[in-house]
Amino acid sequence: MRPRRHGGPARRDLHVLPALARPGRGGGPLAADLRLRGRAGGDGAPRAPAGPRPRAGGRPAARRPQAPGGGVSGLPTSARPPAAPPLAAAPPPGPAAGAAPPPLDVARLRADFPALHQEVHGRLLVYLDNAATTQKPRAVIDAVARYYERDNANVHRGVHALSERATKAFEGARRTVARFLSADPREVIFVRGATEAVNLVAQTFGRQRVGPGDEVVVTTLEHHSNIVPWQLLCAEKGARVVPAPIDDAGDLDLAALEGLLGPRVRLLAVTQVSNALGTVTPLAEVIALARARGIPVLVDGAQGMPHLGADVGAMGADFYVWSGHKVYGPTGIGVLWGRREHLLAMPPWQGGGDMIRSVTFEKTTFNELPYKFEAGTPHIAGAIGLAAALDYLSAVGLPAVAAHEASLLAQAEEALRALPDVRLVGTPRRRAGALSFLMGDVHPHDLATIVDRQGVAIRAGHHCAQPLMKRLGVPATSRASFALYNTSADVEALVRALHAARKIFS
């Protein structure tokens, strides 16, 4: 049985809906390509920011309105403009240039983080392990839950309402990340985290450029995630990884670094902030040295993004990688930003899923940016949660967060210096987020265990920075790291816990 039109007789191949969508009357954009749903998604309507909740006793925070439909672009690939202009960059809100940021209302902000309101070993939790991962505000938890409760569907190819809503939210998250970085959304690649992002660059960009006898320069401050991928690449290519030294304070030796940037260097990989010491790398000088020699730069922003943020256009690097869970977002989601000309020239890393445009047994053609590097089903809920986290951080104000954390670091550093038998490990000129220390000959693991019994969570170990530990002459350290919700009382709790530990080990 075939449907009839206008009551006429049934004819062969006469369908109410054609197999392919027809252009609208009077011209206009072509209808959707049924092989691949567009991903530009969204109607352009601004989303309500997932900012801090109002004061207790005030009106409850309104839930973010959900725009109907998927807003999926119907343009087939061939009809899309070759280089759409980037979205208008909206830097994170902050004070006017030269003005001091307003102080944070930390008591109010802490109410947004449910995990902080629990007891550990009979004491209210003091969480000072933020360099490992941050706690999540209610806005992030709600965004992830809302996706699974209402919009759970796979993205991009579905034509049903849930898939279109999920696509819209997912691509909206990409635009949020792009705004936070002052970047083009097509240059924002969703990955599992900074580690995966570095590996992606090493196995694509690196494979194209590194050959026998070449060098990749890293710094002694690096996390293993910014060392090992380059070692794997260099071992395969007959190249070598060259570490740039630091001084005894934990600062990068710029003169030595400059001397290492020779003609065989194919890439410089450098951290924005040391995860172990909190050292802030002078990125402007470092990147200028590399670019003057035509050396591309990858910046590991895993520890820098939560405290300093990043404007990738102003930074001047070629790649910037970071993890969402250290910026109050979910685990398992991160971002690779790369210059468009690099991303276009790089081959895909993983195959399958959204990274293809067409497949035959003879040949596969690959999708456009950013999907060329996003094989398989992405972490949809993670991306949505990450966008909520960035909205939250933007609403609080990154400059105010940085000032607050700097104040806590100064307080902690002064307090630890005053403690008997406590020695700071690393005294860099500029620090963000974290500090490391030792207490006498007590092993950091033992110290962290005793401190935990006082309700204070700190990290102990080599912090995935064994070359740095070797340079500093220690096997491990204890590390306290701070976030926007920490307080002076948290520092005082750490000091009391260390006094308690000292009594036990004395």
Task: Give an overview in words.
The strands form 5 sheets. A 7-stranded mixed beta sheet has the order 4-10-9-8-7-5-6, with helices on both faces. It has a 4-stranded antiparallel beta sheet with strand order 13-14-17-16, with helices on one face. A two-stranded antiparallel sheet has the order 1-2. Helix 3 (161-181) packs across helix 11 (380-396). The N and C termini lie far apart (90 Å). The protein has helices spanning 106-110, 138-151, 161-181, 194-209, 228-237, 254-260, 283-291, 305-308, 312-315, 340-345, 380-396, 398-417, 444-453, 466-472, 488-505, and strands at 119-120, 123-124, 126-127, 188-191, 215-219, 240-244, 265-271, 297-300, 319-323, 334-338, 356-359, 364-366, 422-425, 434-439, 456-457, 459-461, 477-481. The chain has 506 residues and is an alpha/beta fold. The relative contact order is 0.14. The protein is built from 15 helices and 17 strands.
